[in-house]
């Protein structure tokens, strides 16, 4: 198995869009209030724009896309806007691999930030396991940070 994490191109946007939709919609099976996801999670124009602006990334296994991420670097802070793995590849360590690669890919980043829905037990335990610390929460989201 050869996993690679790299910047996605606009030609990857359609594939990543479909994967994003399936991944986020599957959360309804894990306690999500309904199918759905973050803004633009099922919009090809949004994913194309993110690729054009250099924020869209892909995780490939032997050349096939299995996941993606949208990342925003501002100074020495990297915001993990979202990560997603195709549902048929859940629970194989790909999310952990992707987060480790994100941290390596941006050596200038001293702080990594992200948020995830309060109700999503799976993602909250995932980020805590990776060393992210909860800094605040509201009724909808838990906000995390990690200093490198």
CATH class annotation: Alpha Beta
What CATH calls the topology is: Aminopeptidase
Counted by DSSP, the helix tally is 4
Radius of gyration equals 14 Å
- In round numbers, the mean pLDDT is 92
What kind of assembly state do the chains in view correspond to? single chain
Order of strands across the main sheet: 1-2-3-4-5-7-6
CATH homologous superfamily descriptor: Gcn5-related N-acetyltransferase (GNAT)
Gross morphology is globular
Q: Main β-sheet, in a few words?
A: 7 strands, mixed
Low-confidence stretches: none
Structural class: alpha+beta
CATH architecture title: 3-Layer(aba) Sandwich
Helix content: 25-40%
What distance lies between the first and last C-alpha atoms, to the nearest angstrom?
Answer: 28 Å
* Count of β-strands: 7
Q: Tell me what portion of residues adopts beta-strand conformation.
A: 25-35%
Number of domain modules: 1
Plain-language structure description:
By secondary structure, this protein is of the alpha+beta class. The chain has one domain (3-147): 3-Layer(aba) Sandwich (Aminopeptidase), CATH 3.40.630.30. It is built from four helices and seven strands. It has helices at residues 13-25, 44-52, 94-105, 121-129; strands at residues 3-7, 56-61, 64-74, 77-85, 111-117, 133-137, 141-147. It has a seven-stranded mixed β-sheet with strand order 1-2-3-4-5-7-6. The model has no long low-confidence stretch (mean pLDDT 92).
């Amino acid at each position: 198995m050869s996993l690679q994490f790299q910047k996605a191109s606009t030609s990857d946007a359609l594939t990543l869009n479909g994967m994003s939709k399936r991944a986020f919609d599957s959360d309804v099976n894990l306690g999500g209030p309904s199918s759905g996801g973050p803004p633009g999670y099922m919009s090809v124009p949004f994913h194309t724009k993110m690729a054009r602006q250099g924020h869209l990334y892909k995780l490939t296994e032997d050349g096939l896309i299995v996941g993606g991420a949208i990342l925003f670097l501002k100074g020495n802070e990297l915001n993990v806007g979202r990560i997603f793995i195709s549902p048929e590849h859940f629970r194989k360590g790909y999310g952990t691999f992707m987060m480790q690669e994100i941290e390596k890919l941006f050596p200038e980043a001293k702080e990594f930030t992200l948020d995830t829905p309060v109700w999503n037990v799976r993602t909250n335990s995932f980020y805590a396991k990776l060393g992210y610390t909860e800094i605040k929460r509201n009724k909808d989201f838990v906000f995390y940070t990690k200093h490198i």
